[in-house]
Amino acid sequence: MGQKNIQVENLYEEGEQWVQNLGEKTVHAKRMKGKFRSLKWIAIAAWTPFFIGPYLTWNGQQAILFDVEKRQYHLFEVTIFPQDLWMLTMVLLFLAILLAAMTTVLGRVFCGYFCFQTIWTDIFTKVEEFFEGVPAKRRKLEKEPWGFNKIKLKVSKHLVWMAIALFSGVTWMLYFGVSWADYFNGAASSTTLIITISIASGAYIFAGHMREQSCLWVCPYARIQGAMVDKQTLMPTYDYYRGEKRGKLKKGEFVDGFGDCIDCNQCVAVCPTGVDIRQGQEYGCITCGLCIDACDSVMTKVGKPNGLIRYASLDELEYKKPFVVLYKRPRVIVYSTILLTALSILVYGLFNIAPMDLKVLHDRQPLFVQLSDGSIRNKYELKIMNKTDQPMLVDVGFQSTINNLKSQKELNSVAIPSGNVKSIYVYLTAFESNVADNNDVIFTVISDGATLKYKSSFFTPKSMR
After folding, report:
1. Which of 141, 182, 268, 397 could disulfide-link to 187, CB 3.0 to 4.6 Å?
2. How far apart (Å, rounded) are the C-alpha atoms in residues 349 and 87?
3. Do 304 and 274 have their domain in common?
4. Can you give the residue range of the structural domain that contains 293?
């Protein structure tokens, strides 16, 4: 592994061997065709909805809109208000456990295929390859003195990088009700501009300049993923027993005593984080599988079986144990149970979001008032929230076993603006002699076939004894 142009060197210092790039040089990963490279392009395509989401419309309005000012969050047909943000807890729980489950089964496969840092870095390096050429040409260009050609290529690359980064920042803000016109006519607020520039700068710096160093030193997941894998986790693994002792081909022929690895370093050349998979598992490995593509292509050319580097578990490689099916692994069972529970609660919540919310507050100062005719009056405050994007009319009623319980006035067709909470005061009166042991009062609010109920109590001097 002595090739400096791979940007990963064996550095022996006091008996310690460094096997990955630590930021001293830029990793220019080689791109090779293969099934895992194709999977990465598919994963990049999976981010396409992020860029088209703000432009979709539904029922005459933006389909996906996080209206912070009005505290309304629109997701196609569903409108979510802060009272329903418990569902966000289920979403975060689902995603956290999904990440843990994916790591248990396939290591850092999320990092390798779906993480926005990985995706944006792949896009940025593709732009770099378009302007500056393959890795060898890029390394050569870095060593050249500054001249017109180098300045032209570098400036062109960075301008495209900045455009992608800025487009990413603006696209993010479009989800919050900002429009392109706001940026061009000066209507964008200072907060909007600061957030946009911060996101764009982050994309430009992390994906364009830091690249794999973001994964190694900034992302905490690289450090904790070791606690989430086990001996049955499938990860890109070099078959040491088959590959060693490494040796170069001599005149196209293998030398007796050498393993299948011909020490071509192609697995290192394609690694986006500069890891040498042959040195064992490193926290810098994002399990993208590109080293498998590279090794398989070489094995095919030299007439050896594929799989010298493959997805394998420690149990399989070290102890020759067969693969354990997922439903027999306790950790996977626990994660799956939590996933299904969170998903079920989330789906139930989405399909059962009430168009309104009702809370009833009983006046406590005083709990009741005795009128001149001897009857008892209780005061209630009904807080009704319209959780739709249209004004609504509601009818307020009540039910009780108390005889001759009366309301001061009828409350029908009460208008409630969209997204607002309206307080309605209800005064109920009854004679104490008509109030039995059960003093429950059930308020009902009806609007367009939707009905909400809330149970309260009717207090009298007798109920306080």
Report:
1. 182
2. 7
3. yes
4. 236-280+287-328
386 found inside a domain: yes
Total domains present in the chain: 3
Domain assignment of residue 81, yes or no: no
User: Residue 139 in 3-state DSSP?
Assistant: helix
Cα R_g (the chain), whole angstroms: 32
Average pLDDT over residues 147-164: 94
Q: Could you give the CA distance from residue 197 to residue 199 in angstroms, rounded to a whole number?
A: 6
Binning pLDDT at 50, 70 and 90, where does residue 14 land? very low
CA 238 to mean position of chain CA atoms = 31
Note whether 403 and 452 are same-domain residues. yes
Cα 373 to Cα 359: distance, rounded to the nearest angstrom: 31
Residue 438 in contact with residue 418, Cβ under 8 Å?
no
**φ, ψ (nearest 5 deg) of residue 159:** -65, -40
Structural contact between residues 394 and 374, judged by C-beta atoms closer than 8 angstroms: no
Q: In this structure, are residues 375 and 389 in contact, taking their beta carbons and an 8 Å threshold?
A: no
| Least confident piece of the model among 56-65, 158-167, 179-188, 284-293 | 56-65
Tell me the two tokens of residue 74: 């629109």
- E-strand spans in 343-439? 356-362, 369-370, 376-386, 392-400, 406-407, 411-416, 421-430
One-letter amino acid identity for 356? M
Name the least confident of 7-21, 51-65, 89-103.
7-21
Q: Domain check: are 135 and 45 in the same one?
A: yes
Token readout for 134 is 């393959």
* C-alpha distances out from residue 56 to 59, 64, 178, Å: 10, 7, 14
Give burial (CB, 10 Å; 0-12/13-18/19+) of 149. exposed
CA distance 280 to 235: 11
